[in-house]
Amino acid sequence: AHLLARIDRFDDDLNSFITMTPETALEAADRADAARAAGKAGPLTGVPLALKDIFCTEGVKTSAGSRMLDNFVAPYDATVVEKLAVAGTVSLGKTNMDEFAMGSSNENSYYGPVKNPWDPAAVPGGSSGGSAAAVAAGLVPAAMGTDTGGSIRQPAAFCGITGLKPTYGRVSRYGIIAYASSLDQAGPMARTAEDCARLLGAIAGHDLRDSTSVARGVPDYTGELEAPLTGLKIGLPREYFGDGLDPVVEAAVREAVKVYESLGASVREVSLPHTHYAIPAYYVIAPAEASSNLSRYDGVRFGHRCDNPQDLIDLYKRSRAEGFGEEVKRRILIGTHTLSEGFFDAYYKKAQQVRRLIRQDFLDAFEEVDVLMGPASPTPAFDLGANKDPVSMYLQDIYTIAVNLAGIPGISVPAGFAGRRPVGLQILGTHFAEARLLNVAHRFQ
Ligand code: GLN
C-alpha cells in the first residue's frame, strides 16, 4: 500500500506505468501475509514488483505500448507472470515501453515518453524504460523487462540499476508479445545482482508451451554470489572501446575493471572481429521477424479496429495505419521488403550467415577468457527529444545487440556517473553462464 501511494504521487510526472493493478496487488499481498503467518514464505513472498506491458496478464490490459493493443485485455498469464505469482510476488502494475519493444529511448510509446528519475531532461533508455525508471525511482524494488537487442541492459545502464538478459531459451517466452522471436528474452531488473539472482531463479526453466525454452535444470543462482574472483579471466573486446565511445563512459568502465583486478582477476584484450556487422545484421533480422509477428494485428480478431470499414481490405489498411506508430511501420516495411522474393537471399539469408560469425566470435573469445566486460551503451542517457534520426538511434545499440544475435547472457551493473546520469558496465558470459555473471556483478556491488 505504501508503494501504491508513492506511485500515485510520483508517477504522473515520471510516466513509468501504463496500468496500475491495486486491487489484485492488495489481494496478492494478503495471500503473502497468510503464507508468512503459516510459515510457508519463500524468499520472494510479498515482494512487490512491476511487469513490462509486454507480458500478458489475465484480465489486465496488455498494450505493448501500442495503440493497436490499447483495448486488449489478455485472456491468460505469460509463464513468467504465472511463475512470479507462484513465488509469492505482488505485481503492482504494467510498465511503459517503446511500442512493441522497438526503440532505445522509450520515446516510441503510444503512452508518451518516460523520464529518467536521475535527470528529468534525459530518457530512461528503452525499450524497457518504464521498468528501469520505476525501479530507479524507488516505486518498486524490481521489475521484469525483455531484451531483444539491449532493452533490459541499456535502460538499466541509463537508470543506474542492474539488469540481466539471460541466455536465449533460459526463460519461457510464452505469453510475451512477440517482437523478434529468435532474439526475445525476458529477464529481471532490480537494484542489485542478488535481487536479480532471486528473480531469475523464479522465472527460469523449461516450458512445454515454448518450444525454444531449454530443458536444463535451474541452478540456485544465489549460491555462487559470494565466490571469490581470484583467477577470473576478463576479456576486454577491442571493438567495444573504439570510436564513438564517450570518454566518461570509457573511464568508468576502466575504473570498474581495475576494481576487478584488485579482487584477483586478470585482464587481457580480446577481439570480436565481426562486431561492426552486428547492427546491420540485427536491423535486418529483427524487422523481418517483426513484420511476420505483427501481421496478426489485422483489426479482425483483436486489437484496434477502424470505424466504418468499407470492405475487408479497407478494414485491414485503416486498422493497421491507425493502430501502429511510425517506428513500427518503418520496421514492418523494412522486414516485408527483406523477406520478399528476390531480396530474401541478399538480406535475410546473408544476415543469418553474419549472425553465425558473430556467435562464433563470442565462442572463440570464451575459449580464452571467462567473461567479457565493456560499456552497456556508448553514451550515458541522452536528452529527451535529442535523437530524432532512426539510424543514429539504431547505432546506440552497438554494444548490446550482438549478444542477442549470439544468444549469450549479459548483465548491466551501475558503474558510476557522468554528471547526474548513470553509467553501466556490461558483463557477458557464455551460454548458461548466468550464475557466473551474477557472481561477478555481485562482487562489484
Ligand atoms: N533498440 C533495439 C530495437 O529497437 C532493441 C530493442 C529491444 O531489445 N527490445 O530493436
From TrEMBL:
Active-site positions on this chain: 52 (charge relay system), 127 (charge relay system), 151 (acyl-ester intermediate)
Keyword Cell wall biogenesis/degradation: no
Class of this enzyme: ligase
EC number in record: 6.3.5.7
Transmembrane segments: none
Alphabetized UniProt keyword annotations: ATP-binding, Ligase, Nucleotide-binding, Protein biosynthesis
InterPro entries linked to this entry: Amidase, Amidase_CS, Amidase_dom, AS_sf, GatA
Presence of keyword Nucleotide-binding: yes
Pfam families for this protein: Amidase (PF01425)
Reaction catalysed by this enzyme: L-glutamyl-tRNA(Gln) + L-glutamine + ATP + H2O = L-glutaminyl-tRNA(Gln) + L-glutamate + ADP + phosphate + H(+)
Listed PROSITE patterns: AMIDASES (PS00571)
UniProt domain Amidase: residue ranges: 1-438
SUPFAM superfamilies referenced in this protein's UniProt entry, alphabetically: Amidase signature (AS) enzymes
Subunit-level organization: Heterotrimer of A, B and C subunits.
Record-stated family: Belongs to the amidase family. GatA subfamily.
Its biological purpose: Allows the formation of correctly charged Gln-tRNA(Gln) through the transamidation of misacylated Glu-tRNA(Gln) in organisms which lack glutaminyl-tRNA synthetase. The reaction takes place in the presence of glutamine and ATP through an activated gamma-phospho-Glu-tRNA(Gln).
The protein's name: Glutamyl-tRNA(Gln) amidotransferase subunit A
Organism: Halomonas kalidii
Designated gene of the protein: gatA
